Amino acid sequence: MTADTGGAAPGARRRMPHARRREQLLGEALREFGRRGYHLTQMEHVAAAAQVSKALLYQHFASKEDLFAEVTEAVVAELTGRLTRSVSPDRGSVDNIAAMVRVLFDYATDEPDAWTLVIRHLDKPEVGTELQGLRDRLGEAFAGLLLRRRRADPQMSPGALAVNEYRARLLVPLMYGSLLSMVSWWLDRPEVAREEAEGMAVEFIWLGLDRLRSGERLDRPVR
């Protein structure tokens, strides 16, 4: 049977449909940005990885900034969607924290290129706002789960609740930073069981930070 070339001359390469080509270019850009970082990645790197001309790449994306913005927008939408769906009002806070931790481990395992991009650029707002928004939403989600039990406590006065909320938000950078570092550390150590790493992450967030949020302090000054 003769292959359908769509009327093209024998031996000619069929042009990839626009949507499929765009998807391919975004996938290659994700890998390049994750591997090299935003500043070292050039449009020619993406074009070469996709085996297309730089001119064709510019037909789809006006600049490196536009390309990176679209890549990060897709990553943030996927990850925040997974995190949002993992939380249920029918479960307790610690179970929801465990569910969110599981999502991060799943995402790092299923989408290693996207995970690398997030880790490289999360705290670099100069390369775009999407990942900064992810950082803020991630922190707010964990802070909200830590505060959920206190907000439901009828014995908690409005003043005490305000103090607890302030302390929880002070802990947000420590919380998400340590968790993301833990996941990346585990990825590099296949000898460590995932269940053990996940359990340690949940215990760190719930037992360690919850004690600080509740007002517990060392009985000596930290130097």
Can you offer a commentary on this structure?
Mean pLDDT is 82; it is low at 1-13. The chain has helices at residues 18-36, 43-50, 54-60, 64-86, 93-110, 112-121, 130-151, 158-170, 172-187, 194-213. Helix 9 runs antiparallel to helix 10. It starts with 17 loop residues before the first helix and ends in a 10-residue tail after the last helix. Helix content is 70%, strand content 0%. The protein is built from 10 helices and no strands. Residues 19-79 form the HTH tetR-type domain.
Distinct helical segment count: 10
User: What's the β-strand tally?
Assistant: 0
Strand proportion: under 5%
Gyration radius, to the nearest Å? 23 Å
For the biggest sheet, the summary is:
none
Binned, the helix content reads 55-70%
Give the CA-based shape: elongated
The topology string of helices and strands comes to HHHHHHHHHH
Question: How far is the N terminus from the C terminus?
Answer: 79 Å
Report low-confidence residues grouped into runs of 5 or more: 1-13
Query: Average pLDDT across residues?
Result: 82
Structural class: mainly alpha
Secondary-structure map with pairings?
Blueprint: H1 18-36, H2 43-50, H3 54-60, H4 64-86, H5 93-110, H6 112-121, H7 130-151, H8 158-170, H9 172-187, H10 194-213
Helix pairs in contact: 1-2, 1-4, 1-6, 2-3, 4-5, 4-7, 5-6, 5-7, 5-9, 5-10, 7-8, 7-9, 8-10, 9-10
Organism: Actinomadura parmotrematis
Keywords: DNA-binding
Domain HTH tetR-type: 19-79
